[in-house]
Design goal:
The structure is a homotrimer of 154-residue chains.
Chain A: H1 4-11, E1 29-32, E2 35-40, E3 43-44, E4 47-48, H2 60-81, E5 89-100, H3 108-123, E6 130-136, E7 145-153
Parallel strand pairs in A: 5-6
Antiparallel strand pairs in A: 1-2, 2-7, 3-4, 5-7
């Protein structure tokens, strides 16, 4: 891995994860034409790191670490789809965050800020994206979060 | 703001909102290549107008006004991303609606119809889009709705 | 309907449904530029086949049939948007699954595998996609599932 984004990741102390194992007929990330899409979860070494709802089993502070980890996994998947060259990212177009929460939870935005901040730390102005954050009933394996990123690739 | 769509908005009595303040490292709308994406909420002058669940705190009639307002905010954000020229919209490709609802609620389609109708009122046949409407557990700040629009831009 | 994908569908014993009636100002699928998007539900002949939550009213086995049916409906809508020529699909880029579930449900992935498997059965390697699966509070008309597919079209 070389390039401007790789150097920036090193500065930030971020090591991208190896390609995640996928258990079904889908992919960690797909690039076709200029569009790349990656959906990822808060998983480390193939094991779920964060399960449970924010506002109950998971605290707000934990959820921020969870969102940062999930965003790093999005970059890890994207990195593989781009054959290791993240400098091809012209733009992080959009992040969509699905967060398992309690009915009363209202701080979805603060949770997702950790993911958004990461994109801007890594890509600078190219990392500024449209975004939605929604609170869902439940996620696969009891995951706390899934983030889907859409990127425009040169 | 000039052009065909601007004239149509004037006919409809719709004034697009000024650019929304965004509190984090994200944008009201992003345009890259031919794709623009905007996610918006039922907010007026930076204040939440509709909070609470449809079927409980928010009536069906209120939810229809909420969806129309949210769709107008999507156009407002898009308008800024297009430097004021909505005539560049070749197509509203897709609307995704996330609606805070009670478990028993079933009229998501009727809620979102107000947003879909607005797109067709403003863009004519170019406003006809694919669509999903889902009922979620909760949204940031207790919002009643978030709509994400995807547009193809010339 | 002719072509390689049509022959493959015949081999698999799959008949695509006729164009679904849409009740509002939206479309079963939209193609613009190279991007096609279709959102569909588990409906047969205009009638809801699967309503209710997976983990309660709907069993896991039923949910797998539901996901396969919904994915077939996505292809049916796409087929119409492509004027009957599914050979123009260069890639199934992404599937997004919204599933009505109980709070305790954890097997969203297994449900969506039926949809993912169908895409690969029909398109081969072109059918391998990015994917998210989320559990939601409720869906229009009490539907068990909505799948939104994004395709890259030649």
């Amino acid at each position: 891995m070389t390039g401007i984004v790789a150097a920036r990741l090193k500065e930030l102390g971020i090591t991208l994860p190896p390609p995640a194992k996928v258990l079904g007929n889908y992919m960690p990330a797909v690039l076709e034409g200029h569009i790349a899409i990656a959906s990822q979860a808060p998983v480390v070494d193939g094991k779920v790191k964060y399960a449970g709802r924010v506002g109950a089993e998971i605290s707000l502070a934990q959820s921020e670490d969870c969102a940062r980890l999930t965003a790093i996994n999005v970059l890890g998947a994207l990195h593989v789809a781009l054959d290791g060259n993240l400098d091809r990212v012209r733009r992080c177009v959009r992040l969509g965050g699905f967060i398992a929460v309690t009915p009363e939870f209202k701080d979805h935005g603060r949770v997702m800020d950790s993911a958004s901040d990461l994109m801007v730390q890594v890509f600078g102005d190219k990392g500024r994206h449209a975004r939605f954050s929604v609170g869902v009933m439940s996620l696969p394996a009891g995951l706390t979060m899934i983030i889907e990123g859409m990127f425009y690739i040169d």
